Amino acid sequence: MLINTDPNTGQISNFQASPSRLGLGTWQYAKDTALSIDQADVMFGDAVPNASILVADVTSNGCLPIAGHQQTVRRGIASLYKTWILGALATAVESGEILLDQIVTFAPGEYITAGANTTGQFEGVVEMTVQDAANLMMNVIDNGATDVLHELLGAAAVNDFARSSGHTNPDTLTPLLTVSQFAHLFGTVSSAQVDIFTGDDEAFGGEVFLFGLRHQWDRIWYKGGGHPGFATGTFLVRSDGWLVENNDGRAFAVIAMYNPDEEISDNPFVFDIQSLYARIHQLLTTR
Questions:
Q1: Alpha-carbon gap, residue 103 to 91, rounded angstroms
Q2: pLDDT tens digits for 191-246?
Q3: 20 to 30 Å CA-CA from 97: which of 45, 157, 167, 248?
Q4: Does any domain span residue 7?
Q5: Are 197 and 221 in contact (CB under 8 A)?
Q6: Phi-psi category of 6—alpha, beta or left, where left has phi over 0 and alpha has psi -120 to 50?
Q7: Is residue 16 a part of any domain in this protein?
Q8: How many domains does the chain have?
Q9: Domain containing 83 — which CATH number?
Q10: Distance (Å, whole) CA 218 – CA 177
Q11: 12 inside domain
Q12: Do residues 196 and 202 make contact, with C-beta atoms less than 8 angstroms apart?
C-alpha cells in the first residue's frame, strides 16, 4: 500500500494498493529452498558482477559475521549512505539541536533530478517538517529531502557521525557529499552520454516484500540504492541492506552491494537474487 501526500496542503494526492511493489519481491525458485547460507552467498556472487554480501548477527557488541562473499572488498554504497544522514539527524534530535516538527524549506533550485525526487513534483516553494523530510529520504529515496537535511545538519556533523559510528575505516567513507555535489561531479565527465536517470526504487522496489519476509520477522528495516548507467534500464552501482528483528531480541543484518565494471541491465538476474535474498532470510529464522 502506497499513500502520497501533498506537503503544501497536507491532503492525500495518490493512493495505490498492490500485492507487492511492481509485482516483485514474492518470488522464490524451488531450487533455492534447500541452499545453506554459504551456498546462497556464493550463488549471489556468481549471479551479479563484482558482488559482495555480508550476513551478520546484530548484538549489543556490534555485528558478528555469520557468512559472506567478498565482504571485505570496498564497493560503492549508493543510497545506503543515507543511514548516516539519519544517524546524524537522530543525534541532533536527541540533543535538542533540531526538532522533528521543525520546518524545512525546499526552494525550486534545490530539487534534485536523480532518484525518486518526490519534492520535485511540486511547484514553487515547498515546506515540510524535518520528520516528513526524513521519511521521504528513507522511504522513497528522495534526494531533494536528503540534501535539505544534509544542509540543515551541516557537513561537519554528518562526517563526525560517520567517523564515530563504528566504521572500520572512516577515512574511506568521508567526506560524505550531498547528492547534488556528487551529481555535479558525475555530470562533468558523463553529462553528454546520459540518456535518462531512473529512480532507485523503480527496478528494485520489492525487496521489503521478499518471499515470506513479513511473516518471519516482527520488524523489518530496508534501505537500497543505486546509480543508473548511461542507457535506460541499466545501472553501475546497486546496494541492498536489511535489518530484521523479532520480539525475542534476535536481530540480523544482510548487506549486499554490486558494482559491475560496465553498465548492465538488471533484468537477467533480478528474480535470481531476490530468490537468494529470501532464502537467506528464511535461514536466519532458525538461528
A1: 18
A2: 444 433 333 333 344 455 677 787 888 998 888 887 776 666 677 788 889 999 99
A3: 167
A4: no
A5: no
A6: beta
A7: no
A8: 1
A9: 3.40.710.10
A10: 34
A11: no
A12: no
Render the burial of 100-134: b for 16+ CB within 10 Å, e for the rest: eeeebebeeebbbebbbbbbbebeeebebebebbb
Contact 287, 253 (CB under 8 A): no
Domain containing residue 205: 21-284
pTM, to two decimals: 0.76
Report d(CA 159, CA 171) in Å as an integer.
10
Q: Which residue has the higher pLDDT, 162 or 205?
A: 162
**The C-alpha cell of 244 is what?**
530484521
Q: What is the rounded CA–CA span in Å between residue 260 and residue 235?
A: 8
Q: What does each C-alpha distance from 187 to 82, 113, 151, 178, 268 come to in angstroms?
A: 21, 12, 21, 14, 28
